[in-house]
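Handout, section 3.2

Students often ask what a structure token actually looks like in practice. Rather than define it abstractly, here is a full record for Peptidoglycan DD-metalloendopeptidase family protein. The first block is the sequence as you would receive it.
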Amino acid sequence: MTLTILRIALTTLLCQTFLVQASALPQQQLIPGGLAVLELPANFSGEARFNNQPLMIIRPGPQQPALALAGIPLSQKPGPATVQLGDQPHTLNIQPHAYPEQRLTVQKKHVNPDPQQLARIREEMQRMLQVYKSFSPAPDFQAMIWPLHGRESSAFGLRRFFNGEERNPHSGLDIAAPTGTPIVAPAAGTVVLTDEFFFNGNSVFIDHGQGLISMLCHLHSIDVKEGSELQAGDVIGTVGATGRATGPHLHWTVSLNNARIDPRLLLATDQPHSPAVAQP
């Protein structure tokens, strides 16, 4: 009886391990804000590019083919799109996707900034864009973890209206939690930018390598410095409501090859949380 129970337990553990490993692989979703997962030929040694940006290449295992990961921008139009795999073009068929709307009321300056604020915003956008376009070496791919457990208050991709005026789609996901709740790094990487930004408030940018960047913003406190080397789970700061925020929450953006994508596509596992609501 004991041996039978042991065998059942071992079988269950092996099945659970397989499921975790399977779920850890990136998920393809060929929509704006989604992800293309492309199998590469054996012994591929060239460069893969999409929208003139180099792509992340991962090797899941010794008996598995290498994969190129192409983030699809939220601005990508549905229809054919070309990925360059070495000297071979590959066509993606991007499907249309209707994201829901979200309407928020914020301070007037966060909808119609004055000229001085606009100058600041442009300068900050250039600094952030430089990070998003960067491409550095990376160790073997590891699926991301949630940087914060809490109620998802705004989903990725929402069409956003501030004080009745339409603005850019929601390029990350929001998780509501009390002010001061610790936030952790979703994957190993290097802190490449920290600052207090006009829209994003206190923010931390982490370079995970090969064009994969996390931005975590609206923080109450920042507990890391530029140049800090992080492991997944290291505390980087605490939940706040700085910048354009209607309450304490974390906004988490994931950018791959300078395309903001749904972070869920790179997560190892999902988390239980309340249904999304209109405001954090």
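Discussion prompt for tutorial groups: The domain at 26-94 is CATH 2.60.40.1590 (Immunoglobulin-like). How would you have guessed this from the sequence alone?
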